[in-house]
Amino acid sequence: MTPSPHTDTPQDTLATRIGRLASVIGHTHYPAGDRAALRRWAPGQTPPLAFYRLWLRHLRDELPNESQTEAWMTLAWGLAVCGADSHDPKRPLGQALAESLFSEGRLEQLLSAPEGVRTHLFMRAVRFLAAKGERFDWCDAAQFLLTHDSDKRERIHRRIAATFYRHLPQDTQAKE
């Protein structure tokens, strides 16, 4: 049975939130000071007021629960770092990493990272992609950061790895 058009599935809600965040943060009228505050944030710090303003004014939703705030803040940080038009729902994260020549060793570190360093390694990958001007599906990033169930997380890792290796340039594969 297919869901009715008025019923959001968890995936629809995630895609809607990510699309809205990307659109708002990347919009030319979004305050530069708020965007800068999002970019200055680092894990372990309290989210800036700009995050709460962004969430409550533009998503018009309850704030994420405390266990998810850092993940959502990391997503807002990444969208602010990568800039306008960085969200491409048709380009998986693994593909963007492969085509930008992100190293397999770094991908392995990212996908096997314990909870305590996961955000830091993700942020390093985002900086790499931002430096290359890469666009990707931020829903993949959201699932990567927000999923805590080990079986679901493993499926996400497998999907990222699969798209990475499907899109890794052939000449790079031969060197490894």
Can you tell me about this structure?
By secondary structure, the protein is mainly alpha-helical. It is 68% helix and 0% strand. The protein contains ten helices and no strands. The chain has helices at residues 10-26, 32-40, 49-59, 66-82, 93-99, 104-112, 115-131, 138-146, 150-167, 170-175. The longest helix is centred in the C-terminal third of the chain and has 18 residues, at 150-167. The protein is globular and about 45 Å long. The protein starts with 9 loop residues before the first helix and ends with a helix.
Overall structural class, as computed from helix and strand content, comes to mainly alpha
Order of helices and strands: HHHHHHHHHH
Beta-strand fraction estimate: under 5%
Give the biggest beta sheet. none
CATH architecture: Orthogonal Bundle
The top-level CATH class is Mainly Alpha
Uncertain runs are 1-8
How many separate domains make up the residues?
1
Total DSSP E strands: 0
- Principal-axes geometry comes out as globular
Using only C-alpha atoms, the radius of gyration works out to 16 Å
How far the N terminus sits from the C terminus, by CA atoms, comes to 46 Å
Number of helices: 10
Mean pLDDT level: 91
> What share of residues is helical?
55-70%
CATH fold type = Peroxidase, domain 1
